[in-house]
Amino acid sequence: MGKAFLVTGTDTGVGKTFVACGLLRAFREMGVSAAPFKPVETGCPEYPMDGSLLKEAAGLDVDDSDIVPFLFSEPLAPAVAEELEGKKIDLEVLGRTLKRLRNSYEVVVVEGAGGLLVPVKGRVTYADLAVMWDLPVLVVARSKLGTINHTLLTIRVARAYGLKVLAVVLNGYEGTDAAERTNPRIIRELGDCEVFLVGRHDEPPVLKEIAGFLHENLAGS
């Protein structure tokens, strides 16, 4: 069975899809068969926008439902969107879909929504899903001022759930001010984890380095 990991964020809009797509392309270049899985996507009335980007990055010709089983129109936390729209999220369907992908690919990149404590269904959060599915976590965060607190909180929540934190990716890095330049070191020291820097534009060498690091660490998990 293939390995899988969760791409989570410190907040919404931090670049999880951007990083996940870059990793999927990097895995392809490395000769590693990889597939994306976004359990629920909200804010999409007709088709999964993030799901389509992920599927394209992975080079897969599959149905959207194979990548994004549940789709909601309102841009809300999945559990809230489910309440408002009356379309039920089935956790068993999510589990079976992930298992099918893991049986078919070497690596599955699972992308969450928002952060670890966003509710998926009822009181079940993405952190709970990561525990249920035995997924280590890759944290995507902003690189600017304020990211230390958000990132360290996310790391602490992950570890409180017993989840392995693979690394932190500081997205949109420019290094133009003292906060950006010092954030990586502080997060690396206080979070006791590897930190990678990704600029505002797709940087294949960096993303390939991260993909290689993840592949090596997933193999040892």
What descriptors fit this protein?
single chain, 221 residues, alpha/beta, Rossmann fold, 46% helix
Write the layout of secondary structure elements.
Elements: E1 3-9, H1 16-29, E2 34-37, E3 40-41, H2 49-58, H3 64-67, E4 70-71, H4 78-85, H5 91-104, E5 107-111, E6 119-121, E7 124-125, H6 126-132, E8 137-142, H7 147-160, E9 165-171, H8 178-191, E10 195-198, H9 204-219
Parallel strand pairs: 1-5, 1-8, 2-5, 3-4, 8-9, 9-10
Antiparallel strand pairs: 6-7
Helix pairs in contact: 1-2, 1-9, 7-8
Describe the structure.
This protein is α/β, with parallel strands linked by helices and 221 residues long. It has a single domain (3-219), classed as 3-Layer(aba) Sandwich (Rossmann fold). It has nine helices and ten strands. The protein has helices at residues 16-29, 49-58, 64-67, 78-85, 91-104, 126-132, 147-160, 178-191, 204-219, and strands at 3-9, 34-37, 40-41, 70-71, 107-111, 119-121, 124-125, 137-142, 165-171, 195-198. The strands form three sheets. A six-stranded parallel β-sheet has the order 2-5-1-8-9-10, sandwiched between helices. A two-stranded parallel sheet has the order 3-4. Strands 6-7 form a two-stranded antiparallel sheet. Strand 6 (119-121) and strand 7 form a beta hairpin. Helix 7 (147-160) runs parallel beside helix 8. The longest helix is centred in the last third of the chain and has 16 residues, at 204-219. The mean pLDDT is 95.
